[in-house]
Amino acid sequence: MTAGQRDRLWAFRVTSRSDALVREAATLIGQSMSAFVEESAVARAESIIAEHQAVTLSSDEYSRFVDALDEAPVAIPELIDLFARPSHIPQA
């Protein structure tokens, strides 16, 4: 069996609103509903798994990490200028 072979079936019910939204979104980007749902679900799953994965550091790595956190912050002029600008994102 090849890595990309589709050999599993997902079957579940959705609301008419969800169906309409997914159909429209898939159509807008030229994907089948199956491809759209799979791609969206896999991307969300990868994101959630990444958020819950532990980071393991050796004793030396941990010490360097803590030392870096204890250092005084460094001002970056470009970031200071960027954050001084008004936001283009509308407030909710």
In short:
This protein has helices at 16-28, 33-52, 59-70, 77-84. It is mostly helical and 92 residues long. The protein has one domain (16-84).
SSE layout:
Elements: H1 16-28, H2 33-52, H3 59-70, H4 77-84
Helix pairs in contact: 1-2
Q: Which sequence of SSEs, written as H and E, runs from N to C?
A: HHHH
Which structural class do the helices and strands define? Answer: mainly alpha
Query: What general outline do the C-alpha atoms trace?
Result: flat
Measured by DSSP, the beta-strand proportion falls in under 5%
- What would you report as the Rg, rounded to the nearest angstrom? 22 Å
Count of DSSP strands: 0
The proportion of residues forming helix, as a percent range, comes to: 55-70%
What integer is the average pLDDT?
92
- Whole-Å distance between the termini? 49 Å
Count of discrete structural domains:
1
* Main sheet characteristics: none
The number of helical elements comes to: 4
User: Which stretches of 5+ consecutive residues score pLDDT under 50?
Assistant: none
Description:
- With 92 residues, the chain is an all-alpha fold.
- The chain has one domain.
- It is built from 4 helices and no strands.
- α1 crosses α2.
- The longest helix has 20 residues.
- The radius of gyration is 22 Å and the shape is flat.
- The chain starts with 15 loop residues before the first helix and ends in an 8-residue tail after the last helix.
- The relative contact order is 0.05.
- The mean pLDDT is 92.
